[in-house]
Specification:
Elements: E1 4-10, E2 13-21, E3 26-30, H1 41-47, E4 52-57, H2 73-86, E5 93-97, H3 99-110, E6 117-121, H4 132-141, H5 150-156, H6 160-167, E7 171-173, E8 176-178, H7 183-189, H8 191-195, H9 199-204, E9 209-214, H10 221-230, E10 235-239, H11 246-249, H12 251-265
Parallel strand pairs: 3-4, 3-5, 5-6, 6-9, 9-10
Antiparallel strand pairs: 1-2, 2-4, 7-8
Length: 266
């Protein structure tokens, strides 16, 4: 477990933060849709030897507010700013996976003086995809909840480190193990990303950026190519033998990549 838990409140919405402490430049870790701060535990423990590391349960997720009314992209970004301000995290490096990476990207674009660097893990500006909320909602709705055990949940959610990572976010209540999120809140959180691309915002990012993609990436090749065309100074890498949850599959390789990137900032 992390060294301490903090609660940040913004606009009446409670945000739970897992603070690993540590010296040096702050790092804020942002999980993906339907995820939780605990997904970062292995990586955070290693990073905290040289950095102040804070992992956030974003609104609607984990130990944070379960049913926020506002799940706009702007609300997610404002939450990051509140965490940075209230925990006095001076010019942090933002690291986000999937939707958390999208949030980190928008934060860096809108607040260039606040963010020292950006790391996107299986994340990009996206593009119009009206089927995405329906597809994701269908998948979340297919979970046979409550799961009888965390082990059963891990097996259903893919097995191995990925299944275990997802299952670690469940809570035990009412005869079994349940997700710590509401399916409809997750679907609403995807509404804006399903409507349009955020390539303009990507172009507004001014800080050093590392993009880490999986071999079997959710990011289309043409989107990744366009990202590098618009911001050619971006560092990019792909981790062989991984899928969308590469931070769970290969935290050691990811740690090495992040360490090299962070050393380059110094």
């Amino acid at each position: 477990m992390a060294g301490s838990e903090h609660v940040v409140v913004r606009g009446g919405v409670r945000l739970a933060c897992r603070d690993w402490g540590g010296p040096g430049r702050p790092i804020v870790l942002l999980h993906g849709l339907a995820g939780h701060a605990g997904e970062w535990d292995v990586l955070a423990r290693r990073l905290s030897s040289g950095h102040r590391v804070v992992a956030v349960d974003q609104r609607g997720h984990g130990a944070s507010e379960r049913h926020p009314l506002d799940v706009s992209r702007a609300a997610y970004v404002a939450d990051v700013i509140a965490v940075v301000d209230q925990l006095a995290l001076r010019r942090p490096v933002l690291v986000g996976q999937s939707l958390g990476g999208h949030t980190a990207m928008l934060t860096a674009a809108a607040h260039p003086g606040l963010v020292r660097a950006l790391v996107l893990i299986e994340a990009g500006p996206g593009g119009p995809n009206p089927n995405s909320p329906v597809d994701i909602g269908g998948w979340l709705g297919s979970w046979p909840t409550p799961f009888p055990s965390r082990e059963a949940a891990a097996a259903f959610l893919g097995g191995g480190p990925v299944g275990a990572g997802w299952a670690a976010g469940l809570e035990e209540r009412e005869g079994g193990w349940w997700p710590r999120f509401d399916r409809d809140v997750m679907v609403r959180s995807l509404a804006e990303t399903a409507r349009r691309s955020f390539l303009h915002e990507w172009g507004q990012v001014a800080c050093p950026t590392l993009v880490v993609l999986a071999q079997s990436s959710f990011i289309p090749a043409q989107e990744a190519d366009e990202m590098l065309r618009r911001r050619p100074a971006t560092l990019a890498m792909s981790i062989p033998g991984t899928g969308h949850d590469l931070h769970l599959e290969q935290p050691g390789i990811l740690y090495t990549a992040l360490s090299d990137f962070l050393e380059g900032l110094a």
